[in-house]
Amino acid sequence: MEVTYNCWHGCHKKSEGCKHCYVYRRDESIGKDASKVYKTMYFNMPIKKDRNGNYKYPSGTEFMMCFSSDFLIEEADEWRLDVLNMIKERSDCNFFCITKRPERIMGCIPNIEDYPNLYIYCTMENQKRFDERAPIYLDLPLSIKGVMIEPMLEEIDISKYIDKIDVVSIGGESGDDARPLNFDWVKSIRQECKKAHVEFNFHQTGAKLIVDNKLYNIPRNKQHSQARIAFKD
Fold it and tell me: What pTM value is reported for the model?
């Protein structure tokens, strides 16, 4: 069972991949300021119980965290320990989050080895951000080191980092103003991962995909399914 767990909402644009952030687009459409960070009504979601005293979310649930924020955002420093305590309490479940702030991981979670069910992946959208974040992130004492290249904005050379990476996942950008993803970039990263026996996922095409020098506009409801069938082997 996989569920989205947004313990807080709101973020600050940090780098080039944030330009067309879907959280900002969505909040602006309803007159909200996405830069304001606040705790949500779902804060205690992992430890909610039913009328019989059982956890509402059963053992084995995978909590996908902070899709509308960053788990390491500064404003959440005063709330994070409560979430970490819930993660520890729910040791029968797994918690996943993605960050653009790897430099804050050890400061925010100094005893990270106490949370073996917490998986933190890092987003690196272009070569500049890869070279900036990968050396920090890949040297951390994490059980699994996952790299998210989303939105992938250009061709990226990951060869000098590949031996430290466990999984790479690629996605394009969504929205009307999406920057195109070139399928050749995806194939290049996939080949690098295959050679190094690193897990690879192409999870989303984005709204604009270039294949053989032709630009395709991919409907929103097809962006994940088209990515899943892009590779046959």
Answer: 0.93
